[in-house]
Amino acid sequence: FRNDLAVMYFVSVSPTGELLGLRMMPMQIRKFRLNRVSATDAQWLRDTLDRVSRPFGSRIRLQPDASLALEWP
Predict the structure, then answer these.
(1) pLDDT (tens digit, 9 = 90+) per residue, 34-69?
(2) Those residues with Cβ within 8 angstroms of residue 24's Cβ, 6 or more apart along the chain or in another chain
(3) CB atoms within 10 A of CB 46
């Protein structure tokens, strides 16, 4: 459990409400401030979210800018 990590969600939806994309930006909370996470923390969060997402048929991918992207069928 990492209560110092948070995720900002950026959702793209169609006019009908269909999910088109979900990008997540991992952040670390330190001294009441949001900071970019280290590469190690981003990978840990990706691994954790990917593991819990697999039973639902989705995957989490780490992007070059350290954001996370949801992939689903």
Answers:
(1) 999 999 999 999 999 999 999 999 999 999 999 999
(2) 7, 8, 9, 10, 49, 60, 67, 68, 69, 70
(3) 21
